[in-house]
Amino acid sequence: MYTKDILIRQLSEMNIDPRGTLLVHSSMKAIGKVEGGADTVIDALMEYMKDGLLVLPTHTWDQMNENYNVFNVKTEPSCVGLLTNIFRMRPGVKRSLHPTHSVAAFGKDAEEYIAGEENSHSPCAKGGCWEKLLLRRAQILFLGCNLTKNTFIHGVEEWNHIPNRLAKNPQPFFSIDENGIKHDTHQYRHHCEPPATEVSQYYGKMEPAFLRGGAIRYGAFGDAKCILGDCVKMYEITSEYLKNDEHLFDDATPLKK
């Protein structure tokens, strides 16, 4: 059974910068048995990153739609896992106002980091939390999950103006902040016209290129196999491939080296 001290040691062994910015995609099931369960996992992450900025996605894209379109930052559950729902409720954690792709942040500059998401009208808009990962030279930890969960690559596609990634027309959404104030946060949602499908299922094809380019390395957290990514290098490598092929993620065709 893993203890908090063991989990913290494993984070250190991956050479995660404890004073930097770390975003974590996670699978609690993959970690195995932990003394104290999921709360101990969050304790370990928060303690390790206490002098930096810890970010977890608290997305709600699965439940938000044209009929259910009011996002309450205090009460709306995350659709991306147990750990994200525990983290968003912890004292000192701040959650962004994005109605479908919110994140929760703890530590250095947390309020500054999440500020302005009510002005982001696409999932990974320029100036929003996902681009701020790039600007902060953040690391992304895929804790027991693979690169198909790499929301950051959605951002890379947006910033490179890849066609057929966003809906042509916005959907009406509203976000209620911690003070009960309602904000218009309409969204041009992720959308692909045929023959393209859900492009994130093909993001894993970047793994060999990321490995060659030093953008990722491997580690362990509990029983979970982990991938630790460098945002700047992932952005640079993916952007270069997209310049040569804007249909890179339309299907499972392997990368051309």
Detailed description of the structure:
This protein is of the alpha/beta class and 257 residues long. Helices cover 29% and strands 18% of the residues. The strands form 2 sheets. The chain has a 7-stranded mixed sheet. The longest helix has 14 residues, at 231-244. The protein is globular. The model has no long low-confidence stretch (mean pLDDT 97).
What is the SS-derived class?
alpha/beta
Topology pattern, helix = H, strand = E: HEHHEEHEEHHEHEEHEEH
Kindly provide the radius of gyration, computed on alpha-carbon positions and rounded to a whole number of angstroms.
18 Å
Query: What share of residues is helical?
Result: 25-40%
Using DSSP, what is the number of strands?
Answer: 10
Uncertain residue segments: none
Q: Average pLDDT value?
A: 97
| Broad shape | globular
- Sheet with the most strands: spatial strand order: 4-5-2-1-6-10-9
Largest sheet, strands/sense/barrel:
7 strands, mixed
Total helical segments: 9
Tell me the distance between the termini. 42 Å
- Strand percentage lies at 15-25%
Summary tags:
257 residues, alpha/beta, seven-stranded mixed sheet, three-stranded mixed sheet, 9 helices, 10 strands
Concise structural overview:
This protein is an alpha/beta fold and 257 residues long. It has nine helices and ten strands.
List the helices and strands and how they pair.
Layout (H helix, E strand, L loop, with lengths): L3 H10 L7 E6 L1 H4 L5 H12 L4 E5 L12 E3 L9 H7 L5 E2 L7 E5 L2 H5 L14 H7 L3 E5 L7 H9 L14 E3 L5 E3 L22 H6 L3 E6 L2 E7 H14 L13
Parallel strand pairs: 1-2, 1-6, 3-7
Antiparallel strand pairs: 2-5, 4-5, 6-10, 7-8, 9-10
